[in-house]
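Hi, here's the filled form for the chain we discussed.

Project: internal
Contact: R.S.
Residues: 660
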Amino acid sequence: MTMSGVDAFGIELLLHGADPEVAARVRGRMGLTTTKGGSRLDDGSAGGGDAVDRDAVDWDSVVAAHRDRPLPAGECASLVARSDCPRDAALVLVAAMAPGRRTHATDALEAALRRGVVTPREVAWEAKPGWSAIRTLEQYAGVRGGELLAPVDKVLGEAAELLPGNRGSTGAALSEDDAVAAWLWLVAHAPTYPGTFPELCARAVEVGRTRDPHRALALDESAMPRVQGLTQEPWTAHSPAGMLGRAQPRIVARVVAELPMYAMHGFIAHRLLAARVVVPAIRHMPALAGTLAGRGRPGAEAVDELLALRMPHVNGGLLNVSPDIATAHRIHLATRNDAPECVRLSAFDRQRFRHGPEPSGPADPVANRSALAVYGHHPDLIRAALRAHRERLGTAGVLRGLLSLWQCRGRTALLDPRVSRLLTGASADIAQAAVRSPLGYRRLRAALAEHEAPRALIAAVRRAPAQAYRPFPRSFWPVLVEEHAREPLPEAAARALALHPASPEDFSLPICAADSDAATALARRSREHALAALRHHPLPAAEPFRRPDRGDPEVPWYVRELAYENITLREFAELAHPAQRMLQAVESFAPYFPEGAVQARSLVTSRARATLGDDPEAWIVAARILPEFPGTFPELVTTASAAVFGGRAPEPGDPFRSQH
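And the returned structure, exactly as it came back:
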């Protein structure tokens, strides 16, 4: 039998659930051989799999030398990748961080996780020094698209419960002043503390509990490590900003207020920060407002807190990170002269948005920051939007821009050659009629209202799906559902509207079930969307996770949903298809989500043994049909059982349900 390496690997994953003697007989019949080392999903880019061990290593000496002076990242990764590297040594090599190693700080961790010698949870709880271990996990967790690697983020969240003032901490009952004192001690001493993270937190809580209440709260910088006499570099490598974002908001604000100004540069080193950290940091150092705002974790609550600051550089920083439609719309609305509290964008931000990178298409978030300027009152940005985004704006969007220009500069704004030469078709006719009429402004508003009516917008999106990427009034969506039921929209238009952040579930859920391209994005929206994507669409091919600076791969949508328990592992093992991709998916996320992989393997093994028993013929049939089988794993083993046993096999129970 000729088969690819991927198919052979998939069959090996199936045979993991068989009795060892049965598996050996199946391999012999099929001509398969077991291979030692990393999985076929492992590209070896971080030392995955067992390295060739030519020389014996004195691991005690390596650990001692590393603790004394951290080894280069590449050397740590090579050592951890060796098959003889023990767990205790790996826990040290993945954690100790030398200043200047930030680019490759996660190499050793990546190699250790791929080998399976440690798990993220073990690194967070047992690695020494504990603070470096946490910082390494924080860097490893950063992925593309403004998210965190969900299983690692969950581990960090559980570890954060040990922090002073949090629920899982022995210091949860500390007063606010005592918790702040504990945090200030932790911030100063964490970089040099030799113990684990739980030990560090317990020591900080003890400091807070025994502090002198008459002594002023202050940060003791003398405890910070120094590089050439300065502490700036350690503040960056050992920044407390990530864990601060998981503390109580009032405590965070008071701790940030005590930090030295150059500590803010360490905040900037983080890819994503909680708004409870970003907001007080901006108040503490307004000069970095734009940069800090761009580090805020996405979400409506975070955006609300940042926009409430009403600072031009904050709004500009948010726009610069290519926000969603709703955020960009709110920022541009705030620039209007009639806004309750007008917040204009700075000249610097307006210039970079006028001359920034061109979006790859109307769905590119980069277009949000410039095209939606037609809703604001910056004439230069409105003209730039009319010039660059006419296809996306459509007649309704162009008229909205013309109305905004009139509100800013009056009738003459529409006579400006920089505007008039951009107008074509209906928008040009309406503009000419408006500027010639004594009631021109009223006529322009009436024309805009006509083109922004729900049915007019739906008709426009039918013709040009690019026009779906705009803010819609609430009255639009019920009409859309009604119109789509009466006369279904073209596939591209329906997909674009379903992906709109304001799209209601009664419209987006059927699209998620019908459109595989939309399902990947919509699956993150709710549990119902995730289940629809799982039931109706094949899984994407599994790939090993790599650090963001190795191509910034997209983490499959189901990893996040499984980690945050929006879908259960039972549902994944039962509904995901094809069966071979489901098995490979479990192996692909096993390094950084080992608890989930163990449970999924247990469910799969129980189902396979309950259905196929110990009959080699049944396992051989299952193995032969696995590579091309389009259905789920339960369907695979049921098909194989029926082929061998016919009606003689008893109906199996549901091992999935019994274990859930």
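Let me know if anything looks off before we file it.
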